[in-house]
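Contributing new records

If you add data, match the layout below exactly. Sequence lines come first and carry their own label; structure lines follow with theirs. Keep one chain per record. Anything else will be rejected by the validation script.
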Amino acid sequence: MKRTLFLQGPSFDGYDGGAGARYQMKREVKSFWYPTWIAQPAAMVEGSKLIDAPAHDLSWDDIAHEFDDRDLVFLHTSTPSFRQDVQTAELIKARNPAILIGFVGAKVMIEDEKSLAASKAIDFVCREEYDFTCVEIAQGKPLAEVDGITWRAPDGSIIRNKDRAQIEDMDVLPMVSPIYRRDLDPTKYYGGYQRHPYVSFYTGRGCKSRCTFCLWPQTISGHRYRHRSVGKVIEEVKYILKEMPEVKEIFFDDDTLADAHDFVIELSGELAKLGFGRKGFDITWGCNAKANVPFKVLKAMKEGGCRVLLVGYESGNQQILHNIKKGLRTDVARQFTKDAHSLGLTIHGTFILGLPGETLETIEETIRYAIELNPHTIQVSLAAPYPGTFLYKQATENGWFDGSDHLLTDGGNQIAQLSYPHLSREVIFDKVEEFYRRYYFRPSKIASIVGEMLRDWDMLKRRLREGVEFFDFLRRRKEAA
């Protein structure tokens, strides 16, 4: 077994590169997702170690010694962080020329040969679902015999091995929470809408929705949802309850867990048996949800202790939702939101500006829509054309952007990439700040947040910190404009 390290490399200050994040960037308030997509193979490779440098504020100097006695490194990368990750790989190779370096992530799956050509420090890249790919390489299997990789042969030529088959039985994947407990500090992971500290993990992979901008279903995980058995999920929940008692919330990070109605109802029932949802039981849970979950399912989730839903509304304009293949009607989303609120569920709503069909009028429609829906918190992002998505293909073919991979400023803040003849990227960029200000600076929303702070001392400290970060975020955006 090779001495193996899994790495989320040092990057921009405050950069959230966790695979669970739809867009890798610095957030309006400090947010870090768990590096689940590299924690999973780390749980399968005996004697390995996981380092998540951005969340733990680790520089190259802090981790350089880790590579002195390693044989193999798997480095998770993304389109925004790729150049920085290449620099890290070159530093690793300079320190230990004998080490084998592989990159994983959607970026290198889609642009495998281009990624290898970027630096001779990269020995191979993993494609498709790479959990067992990592295991086989760590076990010493010759690269020529490993499915799902593109690699550099001794003569310098680049070889693309056959694709790796998708995992059918998700129960073969072990728990990731023991790796979090062993190698990570849960207090370093934040979500503006989540209780702190929290833990997130996948109960399944894949998403049947066809949203044109969403990276993971169009690359690694696919559109067919495959989930673990309820028993296996409960096994991991029990581990967290016993071994990580500081955790206050569990977030099931599946793209749309609540789409699988029977599964989530059964899971909610089993969580209720553990005490979730019971008065005095302090741990809650949440998940991603499409804004069309029926009341019956929401009710079962609430009774099973669900507290928060992350909901991608994206736009308040029906034609834009059609344009991005969201598969969602605004009237259905309105009813879903009313149902969730009536049950006492908290909603964190996400919206995107600059999607195909966007105009000044549709932006105004979306802002008014968000105010009407009134989720507890929101995130407003700029449309990001990641390679491998339909949006990227559409945008390059129509000349909406130049196809570059420069999605962030040098400081890690998201920039507006798409520009239309009738709507410039500069206007789209400025509208994000207007959206936030009009949403949060309403008397009713301010009163709600202040009331929340007055009821909870920890929440008071947290919201004050987030307020400072939010205004700093607005300042940085002005500087980037």
